[in-house]
């Protein structure tokens, strides 16, 4: 474990933010991107661009800041810090704490969310560093990730037999997948399709304006694309996928129930994977959300159906550590835990009809 220092990014670094983030030890994450930072700036968060430096490497991380009445500011290192080893997390947070104090910033807690696989050793490491486990926020804290490095024929053979057979049958039966233009009409169609997902009703979706800005930003950055499958002349399956660095992600999806085309969703994903592999040389594809690995067979889990679909491509489910809090002001953090967070989230929802995070 080395020693780190922390600072805000320079104007030049912010101008090259995505190339710097994708050069991080783990290749960055789309939720650390400039496109996503701009989205969150319209939804109650102030994006900050933080740089951690050591003798061994430098890592660039997006911080989302939100001010909380009476308590100060909460910092959220979304999907960060991106470090070379779990042992570097405490050192990075020590640097973060020193920077906050030296800069006289009124931050009472820092929420972290590194893409580090969960195990007993990591939990012990974080506990000894004084980190407090918090509830997880992102859908892919448990997720299926496909290794996309094999050539296409071998990659198809590597899929779970359920996924491979679905792709082949859809191809035989003439199902077609189209990459769609990023128009307002297509985005509205995609949003309607998303309301049909089994574990997410329309009432739980963020606003259309949120998704439109998200999709538009990533398309404009050359990092996002929309696909549809049609049935009887109407869009029946949709997906928005992202390439960020050498990682692909199935970010948003939706479909109509009661479709007759077998394997249409599988073929759409297969098309997206191969497009991103051919055009951006992705090395992995994140299906973005499953039940935890030890609950895959639990039919009562709200993500059971999605888990079945996504593990038909890869059997392996990755469990990340999720969210932990670094406490900078114990008294304020206790108030936040006891009542502050719950009240703040409720007030924000009533005021905006959108999630706090």
Automatic annotation (TrEMBL):
It comes from the Bacteria. Keywords: Acyltransferase, Cell shape, Cell wall biogenesis/degradation, Peptidoglycan synthesis, Transferase. Signal peptide: none annotated. Transmembrane segments: none annotated. InterPro entries: Acyl_CoA_acyltransferase, BioF2-like_GNAT_dom, FEMABX, PG_Glycine_Bridge_Synth. Residues 164-289 form the BioF2-like acetyltransferase domain. Belongs to the FemABX family. This is BioF2-like acetyltransferase domain-containing protein. It comes from Arthrobacter parietis.
């Amino acid at each position: 474990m080395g020693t780190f220092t922390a600072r805000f990014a320079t104007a030049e670094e912010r101008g090259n933010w995505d190339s710097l983030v994708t050069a991080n030890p783990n290749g960055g994450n789309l939720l650390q991107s400039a496109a996503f930072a701009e989205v969150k700036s319209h939804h109650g968060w102030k994006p900050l661009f933080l740089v951690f430096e050591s003798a061994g490497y430098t890592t660039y991380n997006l911080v989302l800041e939100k001010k909380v009445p009476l308590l100060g500011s909460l910092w959220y290192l979304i999907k960060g810090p991106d470090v070379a080893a779990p042992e570097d997390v405490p050192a990075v947070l020590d640097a973060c704490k020193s920077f906050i104090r030296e800069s006289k910033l009124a931050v009472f807690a820092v929420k972290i969310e590194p893409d580090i696989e969960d195990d007993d050793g990591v939990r012990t490491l974080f506990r000894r560093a004084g980190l407090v486990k918090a509830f997880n926020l992102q859908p892919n804290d448990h997720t299926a990730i496909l290794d996309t490095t094999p050539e296409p024929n071998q990659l198809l053979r590597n899929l779970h037999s359920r996924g491979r057979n679905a792709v082949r049958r859809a191809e035989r039966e003439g199902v077609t997948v189209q990459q769609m233009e990023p128009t307002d009409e297509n985005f509205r169609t995609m949003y309607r399709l998303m309301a049909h997902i089994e574990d997410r009703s329309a009432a739980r979706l963020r606003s259309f304006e949120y998704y439109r800005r998200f999709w538009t930003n990533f398309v404009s950055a050359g990092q996002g694309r929309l696909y549809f499958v049609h049935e009887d002349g109407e869009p029946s399956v949709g997906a928005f996928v992202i390439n960020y660095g050498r990682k692909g992600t199935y970010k948003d999806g939706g479909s109509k129930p009661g479709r007759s085309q077998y394997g249409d969703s599988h073929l759409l994903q297969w098309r997206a994977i191969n497009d991103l592999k051919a055009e951006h040389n992705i090395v992995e594809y994140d299906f973005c959300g499953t039940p935890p690995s030890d609950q895959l067979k639990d039919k009562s889990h709200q993500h059971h159906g999605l888990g079945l679909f996504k593990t038909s491509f890869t059997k392996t489910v990755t469990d990340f550590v999720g969210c932990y809090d670094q406490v900078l002001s114990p008294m304020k953090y206790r108030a936040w835990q006891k009542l502050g967070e719950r009240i703040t989230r409720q007030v924000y929802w009533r005021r905006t009809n959108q999630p706090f995070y």
